[in-house]
Design goal:
By secondary structure, the protein is α/β, with parallel strands linked by helices. Helix content is 50%, strand content 18%. It has 10 helices and 8 strands. The protein has helices at residues 15-27, 46-56, 71-81, 101-110, 129-143, 159-167, 175-181, 205-219, 222-250, 258-291; strands at 2-8, 33-39, 60-65, 86-89, 115-123, 151-158, 186-193, 298-302. It has an 8-stranded mixed beta sheet with strand order 7-5-6-4-1-2-3-8, with helices on both faces. Strand 1, helix 1 and strand 2 form a beta-alpha-beta unit. Helix 5 (129-143) runs parallel beside helix 8 and helix 9 (222-250) packs antiparallel against helix 10 (258-291). It is elongated, with a radius of gyration of 25 Å. Bound molecules: uridine-5'-diphosphate and magnesium ion (MG). The site of uridine-5'-diphosphate has 17 residues, from strand 1 and helix 3. Uridine-5'-diphosphate binds at residues 7-9, 11, 40, 68, 70-71, 74, 91-93, 95, 196, 201-203.
């Protein structure tokens, strides 16, 4: 069986087209499929629209989450509940073209890959494009994961890879990073990311910044290295400043400077604040993980067994 996972959050205007294009694309290469829509706590008529589509297509299943858990949590819900031996993840705003799925399915079946990810060749003028590309370059460098290749969530995996991802229970999740972390044989397919079909982006700038921070803090020691680096520089500078002050004192030149004192207090103070912030990020993450809360909660699963 083939499973397609699509998270949706307040996408009422898109559901009709999204479902139609996805069903058509999937049916072009298999008849044995399920399309799992994860309704991530939408407050508009997204759920009603999905239920309507499901009336005509039994291959459509709906996982209705109890509230908005975020897009990575929604994908996780899909990964855990998908039954296929091949499972694809796709955004619900048609930026990832469903028509590409048949080629991805062919690659994973015929070319011996365990994971095939969509690699963005470019996308039609989005305001965050440059920032996103820079982030990927930066992340690749510091996380030491070198085959992420500008890939987002759009991907297809076989059962073994899905099981590996599902075993990773961390509550702060960055699936593109986790997907490269698990290893396996990874392939890429290049595509141009479309503009979203309609509606506003649901990943606001602040949600993207949080996602980026999650990626950096959970996949690298980079922030700690920056701390150590700055701390070391600070120590060296102040060591020589100390010698200078002593020398001044011995030769009786010391006009005890107010400015140098104040400046060094400011400097050390601010470095310490930065370090505290960074340590805080890790403590927060340890706390989050130790709470061990479920990543998502399902209100209702609309599939054949539950109706
Ligand atoms: N999404 C979600 N929960 C959220 C935010 C977004 O399920 O809290 C869904 C959204 O409906 C869309 C996909 O995740 O199908 C990607 O969102 P968006 O297009 O806003 O992200 P971007 O393309 O800007 O990264
Ligand atoms: Mg989008």
């Amino acid at each position: 069986m083939f499973s397609l996972i699509i998270p949706v959050y307040n996408e009422e205007g898109l559901i009709g087209e999204l479902a139609a294009r996805s069903i058509k694309a999937v049916e072009s290469f298999t008849t044995h499929y399920e399309i799992l829509f994860i309704n991530d706590g939408s407050t508009d008529s997204t759920l009603e629209k999905l239920i309507e589509v499901r009336k005509h297509h039994s291959g459509i299943k709906i996982i209705d989450l109890s509230k908005n858990f975020g897009h990575q949590a929604a994908f996780t819900a899909g990964l855990e509940l998908a039954m296929g031996n091949y499972v694809a993840m796709m955004d619900g705003d048609l930026q990832d073209p469903p028509e590409l799925l048949s080629e991805m399915y062919r690659m994973i079946k015929d070319e011996g890959y365990d994971i095939v990810s969509g690699k963005r060749k470019g996308r039609k003028g989005t305001r965050l494009r440059l920032a996103t590309n820079l982030f990927h370059i930066f992340f690749k460098k510091i996380a030491g994961i070198d085959d992420m290749e500008n890939s987002g969530n759009f991907s297809i995996m076989n059962r073994a890879a899905v099981n590996a991802l599902v075993q990773m229970k961390e509550s702060i999740r960055y699936l593109p990073g986790m997907r490269s972390y698990i290893g396996f044989r990874q392939g890429y397919i290049e595509y141009i990311r479309d503009d979203r079909m309609g509606g506003e982006p649901k990943m606001t700038l602040s949600k993207l910044v949080v996602l980026g921070a999650d990626a950096i803090f959970s996949f690298s020691k980079f922030p700690i290295k920056v701390c150590l680096f700055l701390g070391t520089i600070g120590t060296i500078v102040f060591f020589f400043a100390g010698i200078y002050a002593l020398v001044d004192k011995f030769f009786g030149l010391a006009i005890l400077g107010w400015s140098s004192t104040v400046l060094s207090i400011y400097f050390l103070g601010s470095i310490q604040l930065i370090f505290l912030g960074v340590v805080g990020e890790y403590v927060y993450r340890i706390y989050k993980e130790s709470q061990n809360r479920p990543i998502y909660l399902v209100k209702k699963f609309y599939d054949a067994e539950n109706e």
